[in-house]
Amino acid sequence: MSLLSRVSHRFGALGALSAGAALIVALSGCQVKDRPGNAVRGKQLFVAKCGACHTMRRAGTQGTVGPNLDAAFARDRVDGFHSDTIRGLVKEWIAHPNRAGVMPGKLYEGEDAKDVATYVALVAAHKGKDTGDLATAIQTVSKPATEKAGKLEIDADPSGQLRFTAPSATGTAGQVTINSVNKSAVGHDISLKGPGVDVHGKVVLGGGTSTVTANLQPGTYVFYCSVPGHYPPMGGKLVVK
Q1: 171 in Cβ contact with 163 (< 8 Å)
Q2: Fewest CB within 10 angstroms: 89, 127, 177, 226, which?
């Protein structure tokens, strides 16, 4: 099966322009003419907006709304398709997403789209870990959160990864307010469920704060983002004593 046929099967029907461009690349065997973009910046952009929907191991993303990109390109790697060809296809998908899918149009344009496509083509379905500048492209601080005076701060990862800056939290029984600042461009909320509690904050992005307040009894609770596809990667345990 050709690269175009396999990709179309995995991703659904592409727009006529996208399919036509992909067909030219797939059938001609030619390399993409333009030079690769900035892979380091591409990783940052991919994590910020694409990782919420797509899993790609070397990027550390675990989205489930869209296709797993490692699985999507695994056969193509085995068949020897060059990264430049994959890069061209990824650029086409960004420019002309499937109208029946959930990927928004104009997610990235111009050099941004080129950078994302360059990074995906470089690492998708490749084993190992990112090294050098790619390894440090995404800086994440992660430490448990502790309730103080009835308040907990559990922020969304500012890079856009499906995680909170606190992997777990502790608190004391009584009324507790959880604030979650989300500086990323992907919408998140803070939600809490456990013994007698099931509450949800509003979905925010770009520096907004999602908040929940509940009277907590001693026990174990789960804090998470309730946006479809974001949990379980984006969640943790709150132990109340």
Answers
A1: no
A2: 127
Q: Give the tokens for residue 11.
A: 């991703």
d(CA 51, CA 116): 11
CB 53 within 8 A of CB 63: yes
Helices and strands, counts by H and E, the chain: 7, 11
pTM for this prediction: 0.75
| The dihedral sign for the CA sequence 17, 59, 205, 213 | positive
Structural contact between residues 4 and 26, judged by C-beta atoms closer than 8 angstroms: yes
Which among 27, 40, 39 has a CA at the least distance from the CA of 85?
Answer: 27
pLDDT at site 51: 93
Q: For the chain, give the secondary structure using H, E and C.
A: CCHHHHHHHHHCCCCHHHHHHHHHHHHHCCCCCCCCCCHHHHHHHHHHHHCCCCEEHHHCEECCCCCCHHHHHHHHHHCCCCHHHHHHHHHHHHHCCCCCCCCCCCCCCHHHHHHHHHHHHHHCCCCCCCCHHHHCCCCCCCCCEECECCEEECCECCCCCCCECCCEEEECCEEEEEEEEECCCCCECCEEEECCEEEECCCECCCEEEEEEEEECCEEEEEECCCCCCCCCCEEEEEEC
Structure confidence at residue 8 (pLDDT)? 52
Instruction: Chunk the chain into consecutive blocks of 10 residues (it has 241) and report each block's average pLDDT, rounded to whole numbers.
Output: 52 41 44 79 95 94 93 94 92 91 90 97 96 92 93 95 95 98 95 97 97 98 96 96 95
**Six token digits for residue 224:** 């998470």
| pLDDT score, position 231 | 94
